Amino acid sequence: STSICKPKDNSVANDTSPVATTLTAVPKLPSLPTYSPLQERVQRPASYDWHQSGGIVCIAVYTRWQHVTTRHCTVAIVNNVLSVDIIIQDQSYRLALELAKKVVSDNFKVSMGSGRSGKLTIELRKVEEAVRWSNIGRTLPGNDTTQLLDDRERVYHRCHLVGKESLTRDILLLTLRCPPHLYLPVPTGYHNYLRIPDSILCKPYTAVPASLDVHAFTTQQAAAAPGNLLHYLIKVYEDGAMSSALDELSVCEEEGLTADAEEDSSLVEVTLAEGEHVNSLISGGCDPPVTDVALLAAGTGITPMLSVMLDAIADNRRVLLLFFNKTEEDIPWRVELDALSAKHPPLLQVQHVLSAASAAWRGKTGRVTLQLLDELLPVADGHKNVSLAVCGPRGFTDTALKLFDELSYVGEEYHAFVG
Ligand SMILES: Cc1cc2nc3c(=O)[nH]c(=O)nc-3n(C[C@H](O)[C@H](O)[C@H](O)COP(=O)(O)OP(=O)(O)OC[C@H]3O[C@@H](n4cnc5c(N)ncnc54)[C@H](O)[C@@H]3O)c2cc1C
């Protein structure tokens, strides 16, 4: 298997997390439709140009990758230096420009070209609106270069914890706000490292959508601005070093903080997104296209599945979510999940499976078994192309993968996030 979450320092080198690190890479069978992202490898390098119109400077980036969205593009403006990092599959394309003249650092926009052109536009506001620029500025080292995501230096940005909500007895929804000069999104299938400032405590977490709303999720991708919010579902372990430290952070309610204060106990440091492109494996990009997506999640293994699910519904794929928890009370976002499936009845089916259900529970019970999967999972035929994904504690994932094999799903039809 291929590591998608290679530790880059000692604080994470011994991570034995219960959730997701690797994506199984299964040998390709020549006679079957391929689901490998490598088949879509971008052939030509990305490039950029710029133009101006009145008080606006537009930088257009041609990634030549059909899956790129604004959620793949991080933008920061500090001391009039523009830094742009765009995830293109397993690589990062970078712009580093000391801009020719002053721009408003907290008022820029990132937008996508129409269709799947692979074009992104970053719109900057001139401070002196009437002044024409003769050039874009000075290129800095690393400008207009591409490197493997795994090789990219891990840089931390200070964000504020602005929301903390208990979803279940041990799962929190944490909301972070990026500083006003930074747009830092996380695309589907990727995660970022969170670090407690001035400590070695640092672990990966998977950002989740703000809400389970397909329209809001997809329109948020169309245009994006700095100071964005990041949301995480965190399972708090009593003896868990990082999750308890996150639980102990204070929520900041003041507006306009700069994220510089050393003493601020609402600060969390966040890396740019890391990981691997999984979207095309699940919601499209292969031929023939996937029609049915089945997602198996246990506990906080739901985190990568939520964006996948919204993307797949937006792409008109049928989605079956099998969500394994102990009791009804342990199901995070249960009401929201059930409301989403009620809103998209032909497309989304949510099936809860409880291992310690109360006597009143009328739904599925037990653990992940051959009988359960045989009964519920979609089967590929002339009209259906099926894709499966699994995420949860190691034992859960291993069992599910074994059962996929027993049910004759082939390696390219499924993948696993394993820790
Ligand atoms: C790519 C990736 C994405 C992740 N996304 C999320 C996320 O969105 N939300 C989230 O809550 N977590 C996520 N995790 C897990 C997270 O990184 C931490 O591992 C987790 O929060 C525990 O860290 P801790 O320091 O609090 O606990 P630790 O101090 O490491 O241990 C906490 C507790 O977990 C137990 N434990 C340790 N390893 C395992 C294991 N393999 N199985 C079962 N129990 C174990 C320990 O006994 C202890 O009780 C993700 C992990 C990866 C690799």
UniProtKB/TrEMBL annotation:
<keyword id="KW-0560">Oxidoreductase</keyword>
<dbReference type="InterPro" id="IPR017938">
    <property type="entry name" value="Riboflavin_synthase-like_b-brl"/>
</dbReference>
<dbReference type="InterPro" id="IPR017927">
    <property type="entry name" value="FAD-bd_FR_type"/>
</dbReference>
<feature type="domain" description="FAD-binding FR-type">
    <location>
        <begin position="154"/>
        <end position="283"/>
    </location>
</feature>
<feature type="binding site">
    <location>
        <position position="243"/>
    </location>
    <ligand>
        <name>FAD</name>
    </ligand>
</feature>
<dbReference type="InterPro" id="IPR001834">
    <property type="entry name" value="CBR-like"/>
</dbReference>
<keyword id="KW-0285">Flavoprotein</keyword>
<protein>
    <submittedName>
        <fullName>Cytochrome b5 reductase 4 isoform X1</fullName>
    </submittedName>
</protein>
<dbReference type="Pfam" id="PF00175">
    <property type="entry name" value="NAD_binding_1"/>
</dbReference>
<feature type="binding site">
    <location>
        <position position="242"/>
    </location>
    <ligand>
        <name>FAD</name>
    </ligand>
</feature>
<keyword id="KW-0274">FAD</keyword>
<feature type="domain" description="CS">
    <location>
        <begin position="43"/>
        <end position="137"/>
    </location>
</feature>
<dbReference type="GO" id="GO:0005739">
    <property type="term" value="C:mitochondrion"/>
</dbReference>
<feature type="binding site">
    <location>
        <position position="303"/>
    </location>
    <ligand>
        <name>FAD</name>
    </ligand>
</feature>
<feature type="binding site">
    <location>
        <position position="235"/>
    </location>
    <ligand>
        <name>FAD</name>
    </ligand>
</feature>
<dbReference type="GO" id="GO:0071949">
    <property type="term" value="F:FAD binding"/>
</dbReference>
<dbReference type="InterPro" id="IPR039261">
    <property type="entry name" value="FNR_nucleotide-bd"/>
</dbReference>
<feature type="binding site">
    <location>
        <position position="233"/>
    </location>
    <ligand>
        <name>FAD</name>
    </ligand>
</feature>
<dbReference type="InterPro" id="IPR001433">
    <property type="entry name" value="OxRdtase_FAD/NAD-bd"/>
</dbReference>
<dbReference type="InterPro" id="IPR008978">
    <property type="entry name" value="HSP20-like_chaperone"/>
</dbReference>
<dbReference type="GO" id="GO:0016491">
    <property type="term" value="F:oxidoreductase activity"/>
</dbReference>
<dbReference type="InterPro" id="IPR007052">
    <property type="entry name" value="CS_dom"/>
</dbReference>
